[in-house]
Amino acid sequence: MNSASKLDWPFQLRQLAVMVAAGISIDASLASLASQPNINASKLQKALRLVKRGFSLPDAFRRAALITDFDYEMLRCANEAGRLADGLNHISERRVSQLQRSESLKASLILPKALVAMGVFGGFFVRTASGSQSITEMIVSIGTVVVWFYLVVYIAMVVIRADPRIWMSWLWPYSWLHRNSEWYRLALEYLFYKSLLWQVSAGVSASIATKNCHKLLSSVHFQSCVVAASESMSRGESMPSALINGGLVLTSRMRQVLLIADQSGKHETAIKHELAIQEATLKQKSDDLFRWLPRVFYVIALVAVSKLIAV
Length: 311
Description:
Elements: H1 3-6, H2 8-21, H3 26-34, H4 41-52, H5 57-63, H6 69-80, H7 84-108, H8 110-130, H9 135-161, H10 164-171, H11 175-180, H12 182-201, H13 206-212, H14 220-234, H15 239-245, H16 252-264, H17 267-309
């Protein structure tokens, strides 16, 4: 599947968001998309049938294998807040960003792979000239290094493309990450509070909005923290206090923002402003990471080449 085909789905999500925002019914919007020639036509048809049977759009998309579990949770929160168009746009933007970075990273792998290929020829030449190994031994030793290189690259690409819900859920129980990894704290906070803000700004009570976010991660510990915070709010505790006490405030900036918002009563404005800052910071950190990754692959390729030509 080429990059143009991969961009079809984010573009269709944006089309759907425009139609939903314009007041067009979901089944009519889906029918319009499904009638267009695209790689997701059959899945969209399935989603359309599910919507006509009474399923919500997020549920229909998940059953039709159109979105990941993480996208489903984000879209479900947006849908319950009456902000379906915002949720669709968010998923579309995230998909486009992921695709652009993934394609850029794949392009940067051309030279490291070329280095390894030259190392393979150099390894055969050096071993043949020295006569230190038989043909079988050469194939095994060189093949082992090549497999090691491509396995490392493959695992790296799988991790980069993985659904954020998987690795965020897996890493949540390790509290030292919350303290030491700024990127993790920012990423999780941004996604959690964005889902929360969609609902609160639409008039959903803080307690219900918080509980609706409890499946954002599959970690049982995370879910229990969110449910506990929701129950505290239902008993009368303020939203900032419940979130802080529940361990759901990971950065000092968000903690300060919530404490100030608690005094002023302007929770939505304060959180919205902080989310804009977090979004810009995350973009910068992600860009920095993807600028360094090709250099890491070069180092891995050089290590592989050194192993290939060593006698």
